[in-house]
Amino acid sequence: MKIAILPGDGIGTEIVAEAVKVLGALDLTFETETALVGGAAYEAHGHPLPEATLKLAQASDAVLFGAVGDWKYDKLDRPLRPEQAILGLRKSMGLFANFRPAICYPQLVDASSLKRELVSGL
Fold first, then answer.
1. Which domain holds residue 113?
2. Residue 26 burial (10 A CB sphere; 0-12, 13-18, 19+)
3. Which of 57, 82, 84, 122 could form a disulfide with 104 if both were Cys (CB 3.0 to 4.6 A apart)?
4. Model-level pTM greater than 0.90?
5. Between the CA of residue 86 and those of 12, 64, 80, 108, 116, what are the distances in Å?
6. pLDDT beyond 80 at 97
């Protein structure tokens, strides 16, 4: 299995470094390759999602993507902002969802904008 490691920038690099340690602790064999994305890629290549990074992601079985973004990039034109990396990656790979753990406490079920039957027991 080939995993593209895209650490991102800021705290993303720290979190992905720890996630890579977890992968290393597993009794599994992975082929990994790391590439720049987000603000780090913009600084090095002038674009948040360089073509080489996109090709790596497309050629991989999985992508480990770290957080991107920083206030120092807020004045960049929208196509050059770090968050465009994840949006571009999703678009080019036909992805649309970002799953994260979620909890809906019973006391808040009726406060959700979703139907009670969808969030009960989440």
1. 2-119
2. exposed
3. 122
4. no
5. 13, 11, 12, 31, 31
6. no
